[in-house]
Amino acid sequence: MDELGASIAQSRRTVALIKSAAVAERERVSRLFAEAAATLQGFQTQVLSFIEEGEAAMLGRSQGDLRRQEEQRSHLSRARHNLSQVPEADSVSFLQELLALRLALEEGCSPGPGPPRELSFTKSSQAVRAVRDVLTEACTSQWEQLRGLGSDEDGLQKLGSEANAESQDPDSTNHLESEAPRDYFLKFAYIVDLDSDTADKFLQLFGTKGVKRVLCPINYPESPTRFTHCEQVLGEGALDRGTYYWEVEIIEGWVSVGVMAEGFSPQEPYDRGRLGRNAHSCCLQWNGRSFSVWFHGLEAPLPHPFSPTVGVCLEYADRALAFYAVRDGKMSLLRRLKASRPRRGGAPASPIDPFQSRLDSQFAGLFTHRLKPAFFLESVDAHLQIGPLKKSCISVLKRR
C-alpha cells in the first residue's frame, strides 16, 4: 500500500504537469496565432491601401482628361451654334464666328491619352495569392510534422542524424537548394549556343543567343535534327556529367526553359513533342500569369512572382535540375526537380503529390541520356535571349 501510495502521488504530479504544460502551450500558440493574424492584417491593409492609392492616382489623370474633353466638346458645340445664328447678309459676323469655330475645332481635335497599358494595382492579387500558397504549404508541412512528433521519436532522431551526415558529405550538392550569391553559380557557368539545325521554321534566331517566334515560316535548310511540329530549339553540345549553369532572359510571351534528351525525335507530334510533355524532357514554363514546372505530361504550379531572368542549374551527378529567379545578384529557388529518397522506419507518409510521384518513379531515367538545353516558344510573340554570364566564363565542355 505504501508503494502504491507513492506511485499514485507520482501519477498525480504527472497529471498536474501535463495540464499546466497544456495551458502554457495553449497560451503560447494563441499568442503566436494572434501575431500571425496581425501580420496578415497589416499586409492586407498595405495591399488595400496600395490599390486605393493606385486607383486614385490613375483616376485623377483619367477624370482630368475626361473633363478637358467634355469642355472642348461643349466649346465646339457652342461655336457651331453661334455660327448657325448669324444672318446670311452679315459677312463680318459670319467670318468672326467661323474663325471662333475653327479655333474651337483645332482645340477639340487633340486626341486623349487613351487607356493605360497596365494597371499597376492589379498585380496585388498575384502577390496575395503567392502569400496564400506559401502559407498553405507551410501549414500542411508543419501539420504533418506535428502528427509525427509523438509517434516515432527514434525515427526523428535518425532523421536528424541522417540530415547531419548528408550536410557533411563533400560530394552532396544539396546546398544548391538554398539561396546563394550568383557568383557561386558562376563557377559552373556553361555557355549555351543555340543550334540553328534544330530550330523550328517559325523561330527566328538572332545569332546564337536570341530567338523569337514569328508568323511567317523561315526557309531553313533541311536537317534531320530540326523540329517540325513544335516551336522549339536546342542548345549545341550534350551534357553528361558534372554541374552546369546558364541563364535565360524572358523578353516577351509564353516561354519554356529546360533540358531534353539528345536522342529524342524532333518529328514527334505536338502533344508529345513539347518540352515537359514526355519522359525525355522537363522544363520551367512562364504562361503569362505564373510559373510552373512540367515533366512527363504533368504540371506543378509555382507560387513565385515573375522574374525576367531565370537561372538553370543541371546537377548531373545528383540527377537534379533546379530553376532560380535571378535578381540583383541573388538566387531564389523556384523549384528543384529530383526524385525523393525512400522513407525509412515507417515514417508517416505525406499526402500524395502526383507530380512528385512521377519524379520519384521516372525522373532518374532522364539522366541515363546525354541532355541538351532546350527552349519552347509557345505564344506567337514569344521572345527570349540567352543571358550573359561573365566575360571570363568558358564552356564547361571546352574546359575539359
Automatic annotation (TrEMBL):
Keywords: Coiled coil, Cytoplasm, Metal-binding, Nucleus, Phosphoprotein, Transferase, Ubl conjugation pathway, Zinc, Zinc-finger. Its EC number is 2.3.2.27. Residues 172-393 form the B30.2/SPRY domain. Pathway: Protein modification; protein ubiquitination. One of its GO terms (molecular function) is ubiquitin protein ligase activity. It catalyses: S-ubiquitinyl-[E2 ubiquitin-conjugating enzyme]-L-cysteine + [acceptor protein]-L-lysine = [E2 ubiquitin-conjugating enzyme]-L-cysteine + N(6)-ubiquitinyl-[acceptor protein]-L-lysine. This is RING-type E3 ubiquitin transferase. The lineage of its organism: Eukaryota, Metazoa, Chordata, Craniata, Vertebrata.
